[in-house]
Structures are given as structure tokens and as C-alpha cells.
Specification:
The chain has about 325 residues and is mainly α. The chain is built from 16 helices and no strands. The protein has one domain. The chain is about 75% helix and about 0% strand.
Length: about 325
């Protein structure tokens, strides 16, 4: 059972019973999405931040930095990207871990490899592709996502863009540098709760605004919008699908039904997959939340690198899937 199912029931009750909106109306769909996703993402943020903080209390900054700072053969980028696969958070809830890595002194490029891989390579998409096309196509998806995560992290690391991270992130790191690693459990839990309060207190307005934009797009963009503009026969279908997906917000589980409809209506698998990857890993709400941590130039570069990678994967799958069939 979905742990957030009670939240969905509450959102449905407020939207359709208390406010009396129709389940088929655009306003009803938008408000229901908003009322469900805001508390869900904030809960996810709080839980993730809390456990990250507890774990970090066992790993002093220098130890964390050492674990993910291998320069030989870009081992740090590879390790961070693989960590992203086994921590299947949505793009918004991956941000606290990203902040934690930066604060611990992990190189910026390595943290980006994690930030890209975490939402992009998710178990729902793997299961979908495995069921539809077999393990070879699912493996190609995982390898492609890993290549994007590792390559984008290496590029950003090589450019030396630490000055494009907001100053307060490094100030937090410096302020914690002198803390003793040995703490009682009471101290660890108190630290974790304080860290939750600090970070959620900084980012919650961005979460609300970002999900609000996603809710409007969710309710008011027609289901056949992508089919109309990025359907079969359009050589620019893949980049158009990515552009359409960026303003939306959802996790992979929420996008998979849409992907199934798109494929059934004749949209190429690569185009539909690129759309899903853009929605999950390259959303406008994510950019709004990241703005609290990153300066606009770095957000733009991050999105640009990932958009190019997703478009490349879309075209690759459009070439491979017909052959696989």
C-alpha cells in the first residue's frame, strides 16, 4: 500500500467533498494535485533530511569527503551515480542529500552525479521497460542514465564552479567543521531535528511555489498535448517532448500511466521516455527548489547538460526499439 494513500484520500475529500469541485474539472485536478503533493514532498524532505543528518553524525565531513572524492578514473562520480540509483527519490527530495554532500566537502561535480542519477534512474521506469521490452532495453536505460549522471558531473567538476553555489551552504559547512564526531544518541537526534528545521525552513516556500506551478500544468495541459506536437513523423519530437516535460512535476510512478497512453497513441518509445525523464529529473519545480542552494548560472548549466543528455537518449531509443521489436 502506498504510504501516502491517506494524504491522497484527504486531498480528494477536501477538493471534491468540502469544496465541491468536480473530479473532471481542470481546477479540481490542479487543486487535488497541489493538496496531495505539497505535504507529501515536505514529509519526504523532512524524513530524508532527518535520516541524512543522523547518518552524517557518524561520518565527519572529512570522512564523507574521502569516501566520495576519489579522483582516479572518476571513481567519485561513478560511486555517487550508483548511490543515486539505490536512493530513488524524486528530484525535489534528492536536494537535501545534495546539500549534505556539498556541506561535507564532497566535490561539486561528484554531488551533481548523484543529483542527476537519483531521480533519473528509477525502479518504476526500469520495471516498465523490463515488462514491455525485456532486460536488454531496461539495461540500456540504466546505462544511459548512468552515463548522463557521470558525464555531467565530470563536466561540472572540471569547470570549477564552486563559486556558483550559494554562500550559506559553505558557511554551514565551515560552522560545523569543529564539531566532535563522537555524540550520544540524544545529541544525534537533536542535531537531526535542528537540521530538519533549518533546511525545511529555508526551502518550503520554493516547494510550495514549484508544486503550485506543476499543479497548474497538471490540471490544465490536455492529455493529448504531447501527441499533437511530438507525435510520430516529427523529427524534432524528442526535444519538443523534453521542453513540454520541463514545466511539469511528478515522480516516475505518476508519469508511467501517461507514458503508456502516449505509446498506445503512436508516440515513439524514445520520445515518451525522454518526456518521462524530463518530468522526473528536469522539472521546473526542482529548479525553483534548487535556487535556494545554487545560483542561476549553475542551475541553467545543470539543466542544459541534462537536457542534451536526455534528448540523446530519446533519439537512441527511437533507433533501438524498432530494431528490438
Amino acid at each position: 500500500m502506498d504510504p501516502f494513500y491517506p494524504l491522497q484520500l484527504l486531498a480528494n475529500w477536501i477538493t471534491y467533498n468540502v469544496l465541491g469541485l468536480s473530479a473532471t474539472s481542470k481546477l479540481g485536478a490542479s487543486l487535488d494535485f497541489f493538496l496531495f503533493d505539497v505535504p507529501k514532498v515536505l514529509i519526504l524532505l523532512a524524513v530524508v533530511i532527518f535520516f541524512v543528518a543522523v547518518i552524517r553524525s557518524f561520518f565527519p565531513p572529512e570522512k564523507t569527503k574521502k569516501l566520495l572524492s576519489h579522483s582516479r578514473l572518476y571513481g567519485g562520480n561513478i560511486a555517487a551515480a550508483l548511490l543515486g540509483i539505490v536512493t530513488p527519490f524524486c528530484s525535489c527530495s534528492a536536494v537535501p542529500l545534495f546539500i549534505g554532500f556539498v556541506e561535507s566537502g564532497v566535490p561539486l561535480g561528484v554531488t551533481f552525479s548523484f543529483l542527476v542519477a537519483s531521480p533519473m534512474i528509477n525502479e518504476v521506469a526500469v520495471i516498465l521497460l523490463l515488462g514491455l521490452f525485456g532486460w536488454q532495453i531496461a539495461a540500456l536505460y540504466v546505462v544511459s542514465g548512468l552515463l548522463i549522471a557521470i558525464t555531467s558531473g565530470i563536466i561540472i567538476g572540471k569547470l570549477g564552479l564552486e563559486s556558483w553555489v550559494e554562500d550559506y551552504v559553505y558557511e554551514i559547512r565551515m560552522g560545523e567543521a569543529g564539531k566532535l564526531p563522537e555524540q550520544t544518541w540524544r545529541e544525534r537526534l537533536a542535531y537531526a531535528l535542528g537540521y530538519v528545521k533549518e533546511i525545511v525552513g529555508k526551502v518550503w516556500p520554493y516547494v510550495v511555489v514549484g508544486i503550485g506551478i506543476g499543479a497548474v500544468m497538471h490540471g490544465y495541459v490536455p492529455n493529448d498535448f504531447l501527441v499533437k506536437y511530438a507525435g510520430p513523423g516529427n523529427p524534432l519530437a524528442v526535444p519538443l517532448a523534453v521542453l513540454i516535460g520541463v514545466p511539469l512535476y511528478s515522480n516516475a510512478a505518476g508519469v508511467v500511466p501517461i507514458v503508456g497512453v502516449l505509446i498506445a497513441k503512436g508516440v515513439s518509445v524514445g520520445t515518451a521516455l525522454a518526456f518521462m525523464m524530463a518530468v522526473v529529473g528536469l522539472s521546473l519545480p526542482e529548479a525553483i527548489i534548487l535556487r535556494k542552494v545554487l545560483k542561476p548560472k549553475l542551475i541553467a548549466l545543470y539543466f542544459g547538460i541534462n537536457a542534451v543528455g536526455i534528448v540523446a537518449i530519446g533519439y537512441l531509443f527511437n533507433l533501438v526499439i524498432p530494431l528490438a521489436r
